[in-house]
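Lab manual, section 2.4: Encoding a predicted structure.

Procedure: take the sequence of the chain (503 residues), apply the prediction step described in section 2.3, and record the output as structure tokens. A sample record is shown.
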Amino acid sequence: MTSVGLLSLAIFLPAAPPSGRLERGDEFTYVGSVTETVDRPGMRFKRAHGLEVRVFVMERRDSWSDAAVLTQLRRTDDGPVTGALPDISGSKVSQAGPPAVRLDLIRIHDDGRVHLLAPLGPAPLRFANDTPMRALPVLPLDGFAPFEFGMFPPRQKGPETKWSVASTDPARPPESWSINGHDFIQSERCTQLIGIQQSLDWEKPRGGLTSWQRTEEVWTSEHGLARRVHRTIVQRDGIATEPAVRIEVKYDLQEQGRPIGRTYDRYRSDIEAAHLASAELLPLLKDAARRGPEPFRQRIARLDDHLSATEPGTPYREAVLAVRRQLEAARKGEAIPIPTSAAPMAPSKRCKVGEEAPGFQSGDFRLSDVRDKPIVLVFFMPGQVTTEPAITIADAIQKKCGPRIAVVTLAVFRKVEEGIHDRDRLKLTVPVYDGSPAVGAYGIDTFPRFLVIDTQGKLKWTFAGVGNETGFLVKEQVEGLLASPVATGSPGGPSKPGPRARQ
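Recorded output:
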């Protein structure tokens, strides 16, 4: 066996879901084609794309799996339709450009329902029961879709062989599904499902109106996994018998595996970076001209930091590069293509000054254990130019005030071990914990962030960034709390020791 083969065995495990459940790390790669033929007066062409869809399961819970779906379309050949004019007939693509890329995060329920997800940022993304969800987008009828979810057909609720599913578009009729026997796909016995959705006038077309029909054929294994998908969408104009538009999508399951360890981490890192960058981009596009190039330049620099700090070679790196191309186009004032994500990021909830500080636990530190004294929380990202001044200020405050306060530094957007390494390199003693459990509750979307909590458990003060004056400002807030009667307490009263630093 070659070294490449050994490496493949080391980072992938075979993944055939034993009972239809999708488990954390499962990955399925579908490969096929998309063709679009239009034959209308003044508009006659044929386009073809190569299609690749990857489904990567990021988390598994009791009754659902959360996954990323990466859809890539690569232009292949354009051909003329008979009778078309030369300027609209299409031609062979001489040089392949970048693929059309779209990344979606979805929740796959065990009963077959699928929803788009918009998890709270920033990274690392947290998937929970209350993660915002919405319906999948409706397939367009007059062109190919930039997304693909056909490998998740609706399931019947019982033993029936025919069932109906309401459309997510109230203007469209319901979908009719049925079991149409069995067949062998890639030496595996599969059940063939057929779904039909059509306009009310499809059977009896009327002059001057366009009727349409969408047909889905999905072959699923006995484990519930889709092995093959074939979709056709046909439009007829008036009473014509020949279709004016025909869109055909075909793909098969080509590979399945389960990346583990560092490979899983690399996949997830690229997925999260692309999703968050795309979610930030969408609201900026509404008034990009007024904003100018600077907001886009900043986000390009942030993506470049991610690209340089992480290893290349993951299949989801294409999603990161696609967002970067969009940012670059927006910076130049150019037209922006279809967004790579349909689910905008829900805004992080930010605790405001005067409100009760949300509790959280990270390792052996619990905020509730130190609520009888002033608390300083310092959120920082390891390995940045702001890391040293942020944790140095935290360490100095701890040494000056001693056990009368609790000072905790929280590493965000990277592994806590990297933050501990930074602290040890600087020969500091302030405790360092994983900040991800507190990111959502405190709305941490920039770094560093300094927060001071009073003895009543309320957020007293917050500061974003770090500069020459930051240490003085933090010390001023802490000393003001220590000077108050509530914080001072009775003389000689016991005080709880501060949290232990993670070693």
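Check your result against the sample. Residues 261-284 form the longest helix (24 residues).
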